[in-house]
Amino acid sequence: MWSAFQVSRFLCAHDRARFLVAGTGPSQEEMQRTFAAHGLTDRLHLVGVLGQKELAGAYQANETVVLMPLPPQQNFSGGRPWKGGETIASELSSLSQNRSRPRARILGWICVWLLRLQWATWHSEVEGLERLDERIARGKRTLLTFWHGKYLPLYALLQGRAACVFTSRSFRGEVIAEICRRFGYTCVQIPDDARHRSLDLLRQALVTHRMGGIAVDGPLGPYHVVKHMPIQLASELSFALLPVSVASRRKWVLTQRWDRMEVPRPFTRVYLVIGGALEVPPDLTRGAVEPWGRRLHDALEALDRQAEEKVRVPPQRIQLAKDDNARSLLQWAKKGRNSLS
């Protein structure tokens, strides 16, 4: 069993690691003191006693889980006996991820390979990325929001920033999960038969994440209609909504799909823009969710127009630099002729 000192040393050596403890016990105060002494208080999460569904969400949300054998008088569940890791595994809710099928993994790998090749040819420009990076550096809870038809280039353009991405538990979802894994994101697959309780499942998954990403008109539309779910999540879990859009000068548009997915062509100009954060107040009533949905819709549409305008305008900075160089060369030649005469 690791001591609090050993865990704190591990966290000091791994900047992105966090430590979540479910349950209570006599060593809790010692753990808090040790983490505070190392300046790690914000990376220790003591969630107390969890019920079955909450415990399942905690297991699913963490990349590494350590199961500790406990004596009969101690347990995580407020009175239920500890039954061992294999029993807990059988009790996990449908939020837990299944291992991708081989065909989905292969297809996901092919998609990643093709996307990386295209990404290497793009002339990419980014606006507002400092807003996202500042929130990440400060540990602020952030939910990246975008249209479903715009998500494909975001895998590459935002690579290196840990985020929890949501998709359905289906073959398509398994492919997306494989793409997310290879680009460094965490992916949570929501069962197709869980529509009536999908908000609860998403809430459980975001408990231990500081950043998430969600297509606000997904998974099945209608096109560019903001669902209430992201607004409710942001309000209940104190997440700020950060609207994101991307546009490309030359692209394929899959018009047969409901989301009209956009795929940037190779060697094209791609522009990513991140807007200002929308700080949703806590405990929104149902009547107050709709106005915030309109605000998010308007913010995304404005970013769409901004990104599209940027990719249509030829890069003036390069032309101006060439003009300045030519002007300097002419002046130098003129001076040379005057000195000779």
What is the structural class? alpha/beta
Helix content: 40-55%
**Silhouette:** globular
Q: How many domain modules?
A: 2
Which fold name fills CATH's third level, the topology of the largest domain? Glycerol-3-phosphate (1)-acyltransferase
Structure commentary:
With 341 residues, the chain is of the alpha/beta class. The protein has two domains: 4-91, no CATH class; 102-316, Glycerol-3-phosphate (1)-acyltransferase (3-Layer(aba) Sandwich). 45% of the residues lie in helices and 18% in strands. The strands form three sheets. Strands 3, 4, 5, 6, 7, 8, 11 and 12 form an eight-stranded mixed beta sheet that branches. A two-stranded parallel ribbon has the order 1-2. Strand 9 and strand 10 form a beta hairpin. Helix 3 packs across helix 9. Residues 63-98 and 317-322 have low confidence and may be disordered.
Sum this structure up briefly.
This protein is α/β, with parallel strands linked by helices and 341 residues long. It is built from twelve helices and twelve strands.
Features:
Glycerol-3-phosphate (1)-acyltransferase; 12 strands; 12 helices; 341 residues; globular; single chain; 2 domains; alpha/beta
How are the secondary structure elements laid out?
Elements: H1 4-13, E1 19-22, H2 28-37, E2 44-48, H3 52-61, H4 85-91, H5 102-121, E3 123-127, H6 129-137, E4 142-146, H7 154-157, E5 164-169, H8 171-183, E6 186-191, H9 198-206, E7 211-215, H10 228-237, E8 240-248, E9 251-254, E10 261-264, E11 269-274, E12 278-279, H11 286-312, H12 316-340
Parallel strand pairs: 1-2, 3-11, 4-7, 4-8, 5-6, 5-7
Antiparallel strand pairs: 8-11, 8-12, 9-10
Helix pairs in contact: 3-9, 5-8, 9-10
